[in-house]
């Protein structure tokens, strides 16, 4: 089920948003608010081949809902979501809570995984708008052992941050600052485009801040200015144009943008652009 909204869903959203909501986002809010994937949790650990329980809860409203699919994703070493497989599809009624048991593939590599859950709204018994929610990322190991005292050890250390990365656990993955590019040169007084690309399976949610920094040592870099702040829901492609006007311009320095976002789980994330130069 690795696809975007079905044609039926798009048509339903278009029609319903024109009648009941002021915008497409309002229509999504009407049909998808109150949904949450509560299991697996971020603290759960599974061994490849074990079963995981996927639980979805909802705040009841007038729209009949069913769980229609489960997709399993991993997060790779570059912090990008990777589609593994559709693990279940069907029609499972969702009133206030529903759970489905699913087997983690026996050949799954150690790492961080998540479920992407498809919830379908039924309109007069027919397929209506789809809502897509993700679980917290959870840890998968390739094996475990229980000693005589009953303590469990795993094939991979659970505190190994090269495998189980804290930023991924927060939902801070799947977002790339595409522009400006490394080594590019821009002129004071002109506009520069800041472009973000978000994977459709990313858990990044709201853009909260764009800041311009002057690189110093990578730790104590100088904040030049806050270019933008607010709360803007991230589209999969987002761009913003800034007018470069830096009174303290250092033409020998490198500059970069720091992007502040929040994840679907309310965690704070930051992403950096490549370094670039500014000429007078």
Automatic annotation (TrEMBL):
Signal peptide (from-to): 1-21
Name of the featured protein: Uncharacterized protein
UniProt KW keywords: Signal
Lineage: Eukaryota, Fungi, Fungi incertae sedis, Mucoromycota, Mucoromycotina
UniProt keyword annotation of Signal present: yes
Originating species: Parasitella parasitica
């Amino acid at each position: 089920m690795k696809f975007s909204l079905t044609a039926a869903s798009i048509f339903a959203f278009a029609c319903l948003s024109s009648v009941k909501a002021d915008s497409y986002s309002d229509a999504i809010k009407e049909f998808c608010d109150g949904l949450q994937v509560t299991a697996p949790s971020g603290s759960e650990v599974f061994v490849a081949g074990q079963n995981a329980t996927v639980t979805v809860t909802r705040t009841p409203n007038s729209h009949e809902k069913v769980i229609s699919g489960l997709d399993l994703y991993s997060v790779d070493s570059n912090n990008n979501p990777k589609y593994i497989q559709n693990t279940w599809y069907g029609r499972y009624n969702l009133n206030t809570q529903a759970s489905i048991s699913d087997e983690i593939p026996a050949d799954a590599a150690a790492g961080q995984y998540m479920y992407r859950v498809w919830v379908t709204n039924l309109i007069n018994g027919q397929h209506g708008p789809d809502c897509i929610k993700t679980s917290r990322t959870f840890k998968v190991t390739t094996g475990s052992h229980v000693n005589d005292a009953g303590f469990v050890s795993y094939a991979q250390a659970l505190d190994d941050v090269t495998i189980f990365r804290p930023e991924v656990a927060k939902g801070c993955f799947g977002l790339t600052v595409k522009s400006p590019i490394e080594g590019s040169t821009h002129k004071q007084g002109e506009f520069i485009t800041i472009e973000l690309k978000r994977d459709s399976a990313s858990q990044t949610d709201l853009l909260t801040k764009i800041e311009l920094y002057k690189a110093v040592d990578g730790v104590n870099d100088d904040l030049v200015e806050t270019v933008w702040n607010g709360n803007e829901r991230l589209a999969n492609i987002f761009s913003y144009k800034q007018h470069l006007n830096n009174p303290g311009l250092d033409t020998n320095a490198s500059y970069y943008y720091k992007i502040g976002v929040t994840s679907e789980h309310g965690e704070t994330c930051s992403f950096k652009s490549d370094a670039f130069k500014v000429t007078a």
